[in-house]
Amino acid sequence: MGTRKIGSGQTATRKAIFTARRRHILEGYLYLSPWLLGFVALFAGPAAASLALSFTRYTVPSTPAFTGLGNYVEALTADPQFWPSLWKTLYYAGVSVPLGVAGSLGLALFLNVKVKGTSFFRTLFFLPSLVPVVAAAVLWTWLLQPDWGLLALLLSRIGIQSPRWFGSPEWAIPALIGLALWSSLGGSRMIIFLAGLQGVPDELYDAASIDGAGSWGRFRHVTVPMITPTIFFNLVLGIIGALQVFTPAFVSTGGGPAYATWFYALHIYKTAFQYFDMGYASALAWMLAVLIIFLTWVQFKTAGFWVYYGGEK
Amino acid sequence: MQGSVSATPRIGAAQATHRRATLAVFTYVVLLGLGIAFAYPFLWTVGTSLKTQQETYAFPPSLLPAVPQWGNYAEAWAAHPVGRWILNSVIVVLGALPGGIITATLVAYSFARFDYPGRDVFFMVVLGTMMLPFEVTLIPQYLLFHRLGWVDTYLPLVVPSWAGGGAFAIFLLRQFFMTIPREFDDAALLDGANSLQVLWWIIVPLSRPALVALFILGFLGHWNDFLGPLVYLNKMGMFTIAVGLRFFQHFPEVIAKMEHLLMAVTVMMSLPSIVLFFVGQRFFVKGIVLSGLKL
Q1: How far is the C-alpha of B108 from the C-alpha of B177, rounded, in Å?
Q2: What is the pLDDT of residues B168-220, one digit of tens each?
Q3: Does B140 touch chain A (CB under 8 A)?
Q4: How far away is chain A from the Cα of B208, in angstroms, using its nearest Cα?
Q5: How far is CA A67 from the centre of its chain?
Q6: Superfamily of domain B72-291
Q7: Between chains, do A35 and B170 touch, taking CB under 8 Å as contact?
Q8: Percent helix / strand / coil, chain A, rounded to 5
Q9: Closest to A31 (Cβ–Cβ): which among B28, B110, B294?
Q10: pLDDT tens for residues A255-310?
Q11: In CATH, A70-306 is 1.10.3720.10
């Protein structure tokens, strides 16, 4: 009798643990469900749909007609704007991301010096990223206006003829890069760097000082390795973002002059929402996706050589 | 140098103080220079918003107007339905921002505190969604919302926010929640709290910095969003202020030049963001420091 009682007690406990575990799993899924629903309805579903559409000729409001790889072949061989827009986007990303990441890190380093009033400067640096993009674009076209703009005035003082910036095919992308740097250097990327810098334990600096490291030595051998994960984070997100560059060019140049700022994302947008050629636009979008996934994969594969996780992972 | 510090500590200390003072002065000079460079275009915006139309194109350009034209603000307000556009932006922010924060909190809680089959795979998928360019999902989403009759409503700008608030928000909060000791949860659970009460009474109060950071980023994201309203809103009366601003942009031969009015609206539109950032920045930085963003 007694043993049976204990036995049934154990079963009851096991049952209770089992129920608690089931409940735990159920609750986990329940809290996950908003994302899961959104993922299926707004992400995986649409992504699959656009992949399917990319194999069709589908000009709204007609019905999609299967064309196999036709859209991809057309893009790679016949579309006069495909390769130019891709090169322009890579040029823009290749210049703006390294400069942007290095610049934000530089600003964060100065803000991280322990002096009074840094929160005031933090706000000053952050100001440009608060300016709406339409206004920033107009502001920038003014400052760079080649005849009466502020920069032209400054350049003429030192005897340089201002380039025509947004009006010239060679200078339009550099002008857009300047705009992007102004509005993003002090933005959330700088804050993320600042956070990374503040997360470096003081003991490491003390230890380095005791070992005879000067300020450059501390920067080179403590700060830099400790923030490589932050640099990596900003680099990965920066490249993903820069390859999708759209709004500044759309607002300030509309892709001109003479297609000079016709970035890849602009090409997709105009194909989809001005010519309503949804099938072709989907193929364009997927090729960009493959490029971004590939570049991100390469970065993760090479991260081991230079990103320091301090024993984690 | 280092040897002399330990040999003659007094001189070493004096040197260190001197060095620190030099560093502080140097830092201030650099910060001030950079601060002016960064703020100058914005000051230009404020200055221009108070100029007459002629002054806008004066050469050489000057930062400040001869006489501040405060009337520009009233004129800008009247030139287009600016009040209505601002109201529309407020509607979108009020609809979307709480959704993003609430659902990101729930989802991050699931990743940080629950253990179930597939959890780590789902988390990798969340991070992976950051990689897929928005253009891939934009077109089918547009077709979907079009079929649902949601085009020219605020639903496409609001509803997606209620689905987890985006990968970055989930990631940031999950990292932050992981830094909170589980013993706190266990204590509350022993006292008979359920998991939702643990979230509300333990996790959320301790995560205020990260939540403030997301609040600021979310506000800026929705307030300044350009592409969403551009794609989904076609009626002028429905526009948000970020898109409405384009009507003040210079269209040669179509509309009179009104950049000074554009700048006045810009100042009005930027004010809430500036105040929010200035008030919340301490938490903002702390929120990101403590979650230790790493990929």
Answers
A1: 8
A2: 899 889 988 888 888 888 888 888 889 999 999 999 998 888 898 889 889 98
A3: yes
A4: 16
A5: 33
A6: MetI-like (1.10.3720.10)
A7: yes
A8: 75, 0, 25
A9: B110
A10: 878 888 899 999 999 998 888 888 999 999 999 999 999 999 999 888 888 888 76
A11: yes
